[in-house]
Amino acid sequence: MIGIYDSGIGGLGIFNAIKQVLPYESILYYGDTAYFPFGSRQPSEVRRITTEALKKLAKQCTILVLACNTASVNDLDYFREQVTVPVVGVVPVIKTAAALTKNGKIALLGTTVTTTSAYTDQLIRNFAAGKTVYKIACPGLAAAVEHHNMTEDYLRTYLAAINDADIVVLGCTHYTLVKGTMQRLVGPDVKVIDSNEAVARQTLRMLQQSGAMSSQAQPVYTFECSGDRAAFLEQIKRYAHL
Fold first, then answer.
1. In the chain, where does DSSP find H-type helix?
2. What backbone torsions phi and psi does residue 66 show, to the nearest 5 degrees?
3. Equal CATH topology for 2-90+196-239 and 94-193
4. For this structure, is 172 an active site residue?
5. Thinking of the domain 2-90+196-239, which architecture would CATH place it in?
6. Catalytic: which of 61, 68, 138, 225?
């Protein structure tokens, strides 16, 4: 079984991508909604909360997907040391953006933690040297998606900051759930990209390497959360491709 962990519903885009690539694998999705949002918490607190959840999931799963950029960019190596199963993280696809940009200008949208992290800066140095990367913190955007009260006008306030970038990187899994709306708002000359498919492919590779692939005819999809279950399940119906 694959375990997917996020602070809320953000990882559902990754759930959908993994379901496509690995149609025979059962998936346990855990949204730690009692602690949402991670982007406004201290890194040490995110580390503690995430470690506790991953250890519990590791008892039931053969591989874990940490479907949260905020947690991944700060502590991915640490989390891998805490459990005995492989952990796939999600980080901004700066390398892909650098390969796709035509004018050398990239906009990265993420939480304050992600856009200011040393790991993100290292990604930019390693893979986008010579490119201009606008790092745009979007406080409140993940919460607007999580609670289904995001408006197009609200999105426009952040998209206005992309300036002349021709590639927009979604550096928070919650943002991927409104990717279609973002793409429509920025127009055809700007490409909006995310990590979902790359994470799904990496999950496939790691399962193959570990010999833990499943061939269940009817996989089981389970959704659990630590907060308001009714609200969580409403969002599952809205965004999960079941």
1. 12-21, 43-58, 69-82, 94-100, 112-116, 118-127, 141-146, 152-159, 173-176, 179-186, 196-210, 229-239
2. -85, 90
3. yes
4. yes
5. 3-Layer(aba) Sandwich (3.40)
6. 68
SS3 content of the chain, % helix, strand, coil (to 5): 50, 15, 35
Q: Domain ranges in the chain?
A: 2-90+196-239, 94-193
Q: What is the pLDDT along the chain (242 residues), one digit of tens a residue?
A: 999 999 999 999 999 999 999 999 999 999 999 999 887 788 889 999 999 999 999 999 999 999 999 899 988 999 999 999 999 999 999 999 999 999 999 999 999 989 999 999 999 999 999 999 999 999 999 999 999 988 899 999 999 999 999 999 999 999 999 999 999 999 999 999 999 999 999 999 999 988 777 766 789 999 999 999 999 999 999 999 88
61 is catalytic: no
Question: Sign of torsion, CA 191 92 181 3?
Answer: positive
- In the 8-state DSSP scheme, what is residue 23? T
Options 61, 138, 172, 225, the catalytic residue: 172
CATH of domain 94-193: 3.40.50.1860
| Neighbour order of strands in the sheet with 132-137 | 132-137, 105-110, 167-170, 191-193
